[in-house]
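Lab meeting notes turned into a lecture example. A postdoc, R.K., suggested we walk through two folding results consecutively so the class can see how the record format repeats. The first protein's sequence and structure tokens come next.
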Amino acid sequence: MLQPVQLFKLLSDETRSAIVMLLRESGELCVCDICAATAESQPKISRHMAMLRESGMVIDRREGKWVHYRLSPHMPAWAAAIIDSAWNCERENVCKKLDNTSPTSC
């Protein structure tokens, strides 16, 4: 079960925080989309995704060779509320990042 200290440690990293905000806005993204939005390398994003997945914050699904990630619907309500509050503050910045990857975002 995700604990508050664990959530704050995960979100204290700028890359992981950006990933969570991107997933909150988009619903679901593959690693290549996250790499494009964050301007980070695939190995770095994959390492951060593993940490988020192990914590239970994100889940994945495989479609052929692609792996798509989304925020877990099983996340505690208090954690989802914190993410929503942060997303409300960062929405404009998140949309700008997504504009680089998808013409239909935001």
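The second example is placed directly after the first for contrast:
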Amino acid sequence: MAGTYTYDPSKLSDRGKDLMRFELGDTMVEGREKTSALSDEEYEALLEMNKNWKRAKLACIESIFRRFSYEPDTQTGPLTLQFGARAKLWQEEYEKLKASISKSCLSESAIKMQGDSYGSPYFYTGMMSMEKEGR
């Protein structure tokens, strides 16, 4: 089944495939699979599986860098094509976004689960307040 490749800049205010294409720079859809990283159906499936926007973006970037990682570097005479650099660029973007997401994922319940050997939590409400106010 052939995928569809569309991009409509007028739909950037909607959180959908067009905004995801814009944020990832995957807007050259005229060449279909030759110029686009993912098809519309792939974007829509990843957005459906991941309701959180950053997690959906992470899944899209992961799919792109894994797809590009199979393309070898090629040299024919004076012409050299380094496709590995493209995969490396996408992998770096993936790692940066993954680190950003993991930093923002610490919930209150996760903090409460942290504790010393006596079961008291390490973090607690008001731990950063001064003993004497007014200093």
